[in-house]
Amino acid sequence: MIEWRISIFGLGYVGLSHAIAYALKGVKVIGFDVDREKLKSIKKGISPIKEPGVVENLGKLVKSGRLKVTGSHKDAVLSTNITFISVNTPSLPDGYADLSQVRSAISRIGEVLYDKNGYHLVVVNSTVPPRTTEDLVKPLLEETSGKIVGEEIGLCFMPEFLREGSAIRDILEPWRIVIGEVDKKSGDVLESFLLDVHGKRLPPVIRTTPVNAELIKYGSNAFLAMRVSFINTMARVCELLPGADVDVVAYGMGLDPRIGSRYLSAGPGFGGSCLPKDLKALIKTCENLGYDPLLFKVIDEVNEQQLKHVVEIVEQRLGNLKDKKVAVLGLAFKAGTDDIRDSQAIRIIRYLVEKGAEVKVYDPEAMENARNVLKDLVEYSTSPYECIKDCDVTIIVTDWSEFKDLKAEDYRKLMKKPIIVDTRRIYRERLEEFNERTVYIPIGIGKK
Ligand code: NAD
After folding, report:
1. Which of 274, 286, 387, 391 is catalytic?
2. Is residue 3's pLDDT more than 90?
3. Average pLDDT, rounded, for the chain
């Protein structure tokens, strides 16, 4: 087995999770990030993100020297033979991906490669729009390094499919690996690295052109977003039909192997750092090519509608929201993470506040991140019980198990009026209890 030494540019949710996963497999990893505070924290063994597996392993991997971090991009590149890029590609105001972090990372790597002897492979893990690897990354890398891709240096785009909350497992046990190779040697080197990391558990590896790999990533995320918008549309139909229940409908649909059960859970709509921004970037890519992607646009519109629908349910119950107290349980874009980027909860809160409501919030992991963006717009609670106290309505936005511990009696005793809008139907097994003691409004279930 070759002794792999890799560098990772960008130590966020993707980069740091990769650093931990590969270091756990015995790879020597050196991470570089432009954020000095992040580096300081990682050096101390304190994870800047609350990701299972990262939090627990960071300290020991740093201590053992298997995972190092540096503020010098030069050291990172010079001491390794593969560099992975996991910087962010957020949305520009027009929806297209902002590639400035990718440009900056490539330029830095290229400048170091100018003086480096021996073969070096660059792998882009960040999600980038179709043709970015060939039309932007390759020329920039060749220009800054003075070397030709395919000879002294290599370049691949390898999309990342991990889910926050199970990132380490998803990296170490992926369903498939997609390698978009600019040339055959680049793909060969990356595949042999992956073979050493995954051994006999190497999943199907698709080796293809960079543009196909880029489209596989965007297509996958758009498809998942479509499933969410689809089931949320079914949920709206169910709400209008007495006796209808979206979970039963989704279960019955999902047993068909042509459909499958994942991403068929009705809720407040999709959020997070990937689906919304990647869908928007795909729409903008199509428009730039002169094609109007009707389906992709509708997925986004349905998602927007669903968010407003949650607020409308509250308004139907309470009337004018001015001075009404609303408790929001769940702030991250889903349970199991502290990531609030493009979270539906944060957007719901902003709507409520615009309409004059006083909002109290609670999340088991995301309070600190929420505080950074919501500031004094809301009141922060230290438990779900404190959060619902004296409120006119509670909106459950994510399905943290901690919220499931609450009893109907808790809502009845603590709230001003025990009205619960449950976007995840977390109390569906206790419908009788909740219907008896509270005004329980689970989305996607038809009224009697
Ligand atoms: P993030 O914002 O958490 O992390 C990005 C990191 O890159 C930050 O720490 C930032 O300081 C650093 N950075 C910025 N410019 C840099 C530079 N020039 N050199 C070195 N570091 C730099 O982002 P993320 O959530 O980890 O996502 C990274 C990419 O992976 C995005 O393209 C995203 O779409 C994609 N992706 C994310 C997920 C996910 O669940 N978060 C899943 C799959 C794919």
Report:
1. 274
2. no
3. 97
> Which residue's alpha carbon is nearest to atom 3 within ligand 1?
12
Residues in the chain: 448
Whose CA is closest to 121, among 145, 167, 155, 71? 155
Please name the helix (run of DSSP H) or strand (run of DSSP E) that holds residue 393, with its range, or none. Answer: strand 393-396
Please enumerate in sequence order all residues whose Cβ is within 8 A of that of 30, keeping only pairs 6 or more positions apart, or say none: 5, 6, 7, 8, 67, 68, 69, 70, 75, 76, 79, 80
Q: What does the DSSP assignment read for 290-341?
A: T---HHHHHHHHHHHHHHHHHHHHHHHHHSS-TT-EEEEE--SSSTT----T
Side by side, which strands form the sheet with 177-181? Answer: 67-70, 28-32, 5-9, 82-85, 120-124, 153-157, 177-181, 205-208
Q: pLDDT per residue over 341-395, tens digit each?
A: 999 999 999 999 999 999 999 999 999 999 999 999 999 999 999 999 999 999 9
Q: ∠ CA(54), CA(58), CA(63), 5° rounding?
A: 170
pTM for the full predicted model: 0.95
Q: Render pLDDT for 193-232 as a digit per residue (tens, 0 to 9).
A: 999 999 999 999 999 999 999 999 999 999 999 999 999 9
Binding pocket residue ranges, ligand 1, CB within 6 Å: 9-15, 32-35, 38, 86-89, 101, 104-105, 126-127, 160, 162, 164, 273-274
Identify the H or E element spanning 74. helix 73-78
**What would the two tokens of residue 327 be?**
């408790």
Contacts of 28 by beta carbon, 8 Å cutoff, 6+ apart: 3, 4, 5, 6, 66, 80
Q: Hey, which residues does 181 pair with through a beta bridge?
A: 156
- Whether residue 237 is predicted with pLDDT greater than 70 in this model: the reply is yes
Sign for the pseudo-dihedral over CA of 218, 224, 225, 226: positive
